[in-house]
TrEMBL record:
The gene is tsaD. The keyword Ribosomal protein does not apply. The keyword Repeat does not apply. Its cofactor is Fe(2+). Fe cation binds at H113, H117, D304. The lineage of its organism: Bacteria, Bacillati, Bacillota, Clostridia, Eubacteriales. Required for the formation of a threonylcarbamoyl group on adenosine at position 37 (t(6)A37) in tRNAs that read codons beginning with adenine. Is involved in the transfer of the threonylcarbamoyl moiety of threonylcarbamoyl-AMP (TC-AMP) to the N6 group of A37, together with TsaE and TsaB. TsaD likely plays a direct catalytic role in this reaction. This is tRNA N6-adenosine threonylcarbamoyltransferase. Its EC number is 2.3.1.234. Gene3D superfamilies: 3.30.420.40. GO terms for cellular component: cytoplasm. Pfam families: TsaD. It comes from Desulforamulus aeronauticus DSM 10349.
Length: 335
């Protein structure tokens, strides 16, 4: 058996454990989602998330081992997300990982959640050559990351207010679509006309690689309020399509600018919003015209999962980049 990493992820509302062999053979990836619980509140309730992780973490790890047909003796290292995320949620995974690493006497590897999202690309494409550029778009982040070498992350741009996924979630909530909003808007947008509504695109100062989505979000909320006041019917499909298009155009434009500036030819997408159909297709079209290739993880590996954490952990294992057993959760950890 090759190098076998057990990955654990509990940073937000999914309890996940995965067994990965040699960085590419995914033997199991169990994701226990709390979405149905948090849905009632329209978003993740941190206290509830911690309690659910505590209930789920042990059975999820056992299921991952069982499905992978490995025993504890086969595990070479434990990789765990230690930030960024909700502190109470992170602590559950970190405590479980530390206990296992100590009991099994194997290395503990601390993984940055964003590094995990980026590594999701290497699960199916271990052959990708550096330098690489990655647009990380999730519920908490919209980052443009330049990677000259493996393990070297240079932040070129980030959001100044809402993350892309957060804007999707807030707009969906205002439209009465439910939670999480990204997939619902994505689906609805397919039936709508993206040019139906004129919505703002925030490009910020000339040449800036930062993002801002709060103005766009407010424009949609104002539009909905006005329609309600005037008792006008809202075409939700058109609104979803127009909002998605405005978001995606800015993301794509800045990603291509970053690729040009860094002379990178391979662009990766990562994070929950990387599952967005509009983003994937526009980036692909525009990148092709610019002579760049776009890669993205399969849909189920875009949103939170432990396979990506195990994959990031595998490359850290090869470098001997281990964490002490005093590892703590770092809620605001940066790349
Ligand atoms: O990466 P992720 O699972 O969790 C964080 O680390 O935040 O990302 C979750 C975010 C949510 O905001 C969700 O609405 C968004 O990803 N998302 C999508 C799609 N699928 C998930 N946004 C747009 N289109 C999608 N298809
Ligand atoms: Zn995530």
């Amino acid at each position: 058996m090759g190098i076998t990493i057990l990955g654990i992820e509990t940073s937000c509302d999914e309890t996940s454990a995965a067994v990965l062999e040699d960085g590419i053979t995914l033997r199991s990836n169990i994701v226990s989602s709390q979405v149905d619980i948090h849905k009632k509140f329209g978003g993740v309730v941190p206290e509830v998330a911690s309690r659910k992780h505590l209930e789920n973490v042990h059975p999820v790890i056992m299921e991952a081992l069982e499905q992978a047909k490995v025993t504890l003796k086969d595990i070479n290292a434990i990789a765990v997300t230690y930030g960024p995320g909700l502190v109470g949620a992170l602590l559950v995974g970190v405590a479980a990982a530390k206990a296992m690493a100590y009991a099994l006497d194997v290395p503990l590897i601390g993984v940055n959640h964003l590094e995990g999202h980026i590594a999701a690309n290497f699960l199916t494409r271990p052959d990708l050559e550096f330098p690489l550029l990655c647009l990380v778009v999730s519920g908490g982040h919209s980052d443009l990351v330049f990677m000259p070498h493996r393990g070297d992350y240079q932040l070129l741009g980030r959001t100044r207010d809402d993350a892309a996924g957060e804007a999707f979630d807030k707009v969906a909530r205002a439209m009465g679509l439910g939670y999480p909003g990204g997939p619902l808007i994505d689906k609805l947008a397919r039936e709508g006309d993206a040019s139906a509504l004129k919505l703002p695109r925030a490009f910020l100062e000339e040449g800036s690689l930062d993002f801002s989505f709060s103005g766009l979000k407010s424009a949609v909320l104002n539009y909905l309020n006005r329609a309600e006041m005037r008792q006008e019917e809202v075409n939700k499909a058109d609104l979803a399509a127009s909002f998605q298009q405005a978001t995606v155009e800015v993301l794509v434009e800045k990603t291509l600018l970053a690729a040009e500036r860094t002379a990178v030819k391979t662009i990766m997408l990562a994070g929950g919003v990387a599952a967005n159909g509009g983003l994937r297709s526009l980036l692909q079209t525009r990148a092709l015209a610019a002579g760049c290739t776009v890669v993205y993880p399969p849909l189920h590996l875009c949103t939170d999962n432990a396979a990506m954490i195990a994959c990031a952990g595998y490359y850290k294992y090869l470098r001997g980049d281990f964490a002490p057993l005093t590892l703590n959760a770092v809620p605001a950890l940066s790349l």
